[in-house]
Amino acid sequence: MTDYRPRRMKIMMVVGARPNYMKAAPIIKQMHRFADFLEPIIVHTGQHYDHILSEQIMSELGMPQPDIYLGVGSGTHAEQTANTMLEFERILIADPPHLVAVFEDVNSTLACALVAAKCKILIAHVEAGLRSFDMSAPEEINRVLTDRVSDFLFPSESAAFQNLMNEGFDAGSVFYVGNTMIDSLTDRFTEAQTRPYPENLDLKPKSYALLTLHKPENVDDFKIFRSIINAVGSFSDKMPVVFPAHPRTKLNIDKFELSPYLERAGIKLIGPTGYLDFLKLESEAAFVMTDSGGVQDETTFLNVPCLTLREITERPVTTIEGTNILVGRIPERIAAEAERILGGNIKEGSKPKYWDGEAGKRIAETFIKIRQNLFEPESIKDGTKKMKTVREIVTAGG
Question: What is the average pLDDT across 74-100?
Fold first, then answer.
């Protein structure tokens, strides 16, 4: 009798913003090791549509071009989320996968998770469980709600794992696998070191500071943005500061006419960089100032001092075990902590558990175990019981 059961499990990997690419690429690479059993389908929502922030970075990561491009683009949170849901629903109805994998906390993450849940498709959330406990932040809303509708949760650090346990998630659905962003870093680090510094900057290792800003609370308010620039300018005469501006940040620089402030502050503004060029700048900086979650992770792994220009972080491991210090937006504190670093008072860190370049492998192997259960002829048809069986098999190690 012919067996019509599918051999390969179709998994839609949803990416939309730059950090998603670094987190998805290692999993897709590992899934190709199991090509007879796992079929990755890359869906690009178009949330980041700048060439450098998408096609170039995917190429540098060795990531295949997307199979499906939704072309959602920018807009308000509601517009972006709603447009993504409408486009993604059409895809799922036309050709439903067995599982949808979403990453971190951007608008397309929540949008696609909600659609998959309503379509009764299994959901895996990579980088689950991170919490800032600030529900006024859009990213926190995205994180919490995405976790709630997901079937499989992959936290990247111990605090995220504990958050999920505290919130009552079934331990059998949570897999503490580590940080796939670190997989990309370790995979591409040697190549990044061969990249030249940006032209006309005359940079040398550990002779400059690196600044990144993109959070709305930092760059959408003229007074706050200018105060950060002034704080950085207070020590830029002692060490040059390089500022690769995110496209959205550059729009606000132009809107607020901040270029003269940057020039007076001695901050060297450059355009957005690709992944390898940024990794070069980041790894060889004397210290980094940022509001990016991913940069907090990378600097912790690289043991580069990091000042985070936010009041709270959803990544406490970077402050507890890593090199990260929360300085907020208070100019005096930003300047004081920078002066401490310039004076040689540097916080040393250590690498968190499972930040070892193997997180993507662990996730792909978990997908294999999920597939084994879903395609077994004796699998129980009832959805709830089937999910319990999947979790039992995965937790037991297959």
Answer: 94
- What are the CA-CA distances from residue 107 to residues 143, 284, 300 (Å)? 10, 32, 26
Matching residue, tokens 């839609």: 12
Decide if 109 contacts 144 (C-beta within 8 A). Answer: no
* Active site amino acids: 214
**pTM of the shown model:** 0.92
CB-facing half-sphere around the CA of 391: CA atoms within 13 A: 20
- The pLDDT score that the predictor gives to residue 345 is 96
The first and second tokens of residue 167, run together, are: 């919130």
- Cα–Cα distance, 75 to 82 (Å, whole number): 10
d(CA 144, CA 318): 20
Place of tokens 């496209």: 247
Give the pairing of strands 122-126 and 209-211: unpaired
Tens of pLDDT, residue by residue over 40-52, are 999 999 866 666 5
Domains of the chain and any CATH numbers:
9-179+355-395 (3.40.50.2000), 187-342 (3.40.50.2000)
- Per-residue pLDDT for 77 more than 50? yes
pLDDT digits (tens, 9 = 90+) for 113-166: 999 999 999 999 999 999 999 999 999 999 999 999 999 999 999 999 999 999
SS3 string, the chain, reads CCCCCCCCEEEEEEECCHHHHHHHHHHHHHHHHHCCCEEEEEEECCCCCCCHHHHHHHHHCCCCCCCEECCCCCCCHHHHHHHHHHHHHHHHHHCCCCEEEEECCCHHHHHHHHHHHHCCCEEEEECCCCCCCCCCCHHHHHHHHHHHHCCEEECCCHHHHHHHHHCCCCHHHECCCCCHHHHHHHHHHHHHHCCCCCCCCCCCCCCCEEECCCCHHHHCCHHHHHHHHHHHHCCCCCCCEEEECCHHHHHHHHHCCCHHHHHHHCEEEECCCCHHHHHHHHHCCCEEEECCHHHHHHHHHHCCCEEECCCCCCCCHHHHCCCEEECCCCHHHHHHHHHHHHCCCCCCCCCCCCCCCCHHHHHHHHHHHHHHHHCCCCCCCCHHHHHHHHHHHHHCCC
The per-residue pLDDT for 175 is 98
In degrees, rounded to 5, the angle at the alpha carbon of residue 379 between the alpha carbons of residues 378 and 380 is 110
